[in-house]
Amino acid sequence: MNIFDSPLFKDFARPLIQQRNVRPTHHRSPAGIIDSIRSLLVARSELGVELCMISDATADSFRISIQYYVKSCGVGANAISPATSNMTFNGVSFGKLALPNARASFFGAQIKRHEQRVTITDMVTFQAFMRSLILNDETNFQLESVDCANRETGSACVCGAEINVKLPALGGPRMTLKNISSEDGDRISVTFQVASPSSVKLAFGRCMFEIRNDKGKAVASLEGNLTIIPGRFDFILRGRARPGAKPSLKNRLVGVGVVSEGEPSWCQEAVRQIDTVFEMPPSFAVMLHT
Length: 290
Hints:
By secondary structure, the protein is of the alpha+beta class. The protein contains 5 helices and 18 strands. It has helices at 7-21, 30-43, 123-135, 267-270, 282-285, and strands spanning 46-55, 61-72, 78-80, 83-89, 92-99, 102-104, 109-119, 138-144, 147-150, 155-158, 162-168, 174-182, 187-196, 200-212, 218-228, 231-241, 250-258, 275-279. The strands form 4 sheets. Strands 1, 2, 7, 12, 13, 14, 15, 16, 17 and 18 form a 10-stranded mixed β-sheet that branches. Strands 5-4-8-11 form a 4-stranded antiparallel β-sheet, covered by helices on one side. Strands 3-6 form a two-stranded antiparallel ribbon. It starts with 6 loop residues before the first helix and ends in a 5-residue tail after the last helix. The relative contact order is 0.13.
């Protein structure tokens, strides 16, 4: 008996084989294929950040200096002309980043440094990004709707790509009380050692802080310039002890706001995300008794 003539084969196997042999008949134009390939190349790009500095904050802008590299740009090589993309967090844009010339290949391309001022277009989203950057161990933002051109073909397109940019975040940041000393009159100087695992350098400017005990009462009001840098560094605050409240073994350093003569920058809200627990030995606690 020929198996191909059996009822079982006719009912089950042959329709499957015929279905697999059917090829799609729709066609795509050469231009459409080129656009799809270009979008695929950019969409597969990954950015690694070696160093990122956010500074010079105003009420609605900041300066960003970023040193990064393109980990991968898909298959093949492509020369990218100056490109502008939306900086987004949780799917909402908060500003635009103009990327410089870069020749990207399968192996990636090194960009030494890029610096620009970014106007904040959505403050709520930007503050949510800053909160994630300050408090979490890792965060990210996305570059979306990349405007790019291929220098070799001279054609331009809006690729609509979304490139995820991962950042090791500040993680709190973590602080350890290093010293408390008396200064002129009733003023005191408080030194913390800050540990930041991030590659982000964040300049807040001159800020106001409070040391609060385990009952939430302020035991000292302090001011100082805060710039968080990668690694370990000393952070010095100066001010006065608050009368009537005593420090506890575990206290908190809490951001209150920024010192500003005019309209405060967005750091006014961002520095309030700093709420770090630290221990205070009795030898330091007596310096805050009033």
